[in-house]
Amino acid sequence: MSSMQHLGKGIVRAAKNYTKGYSDVQAKVRDATSNDPWGPSGTQMNELAQLSYNQDSFVEIMEMLDKRLNDKGKNWRHVFKSLTVLDYLLHAGSENVVVYFRDNLYVIKTLKEFQYIDEEGKDQGRIPAAPRTTGSRDDAGSYDQRKQRGR
Which of 42, 97, 112, 127 is the most exposed place for a label (fewest CB within 10 A)? Predict the structure, then answer.
């Protein structure tokens, strides 16, 4: 993708964020989980992790991740990147992230069935991270890890 195409997509995304009334926090989640062919940056994920400690921001992050995790078909990158962000938040974000997804584990478990075959017949969207994410949250172990990091 050329830099002009990337710039154009960025402008379209910014306009959509504005016209749909998304907050700055929601726009950050949308940027980190976009359909662009690269993953969310460490900077984006770290910023979202820090924002998750603010209750209002936490709610906005979780609402947008929940929406992205439920996308279908050609928006498979939204799902995949949301799992990447979620995995990061579970380890570096607020303890509220752990509680939220422990209480809503069904959202992740349903992704075991996710699949997207593109127009050329290539399997683009099996989500290998779903089982890894669902199995990575040993409550006692995660609590100990967070405590060691000073969170």
Answer: 42
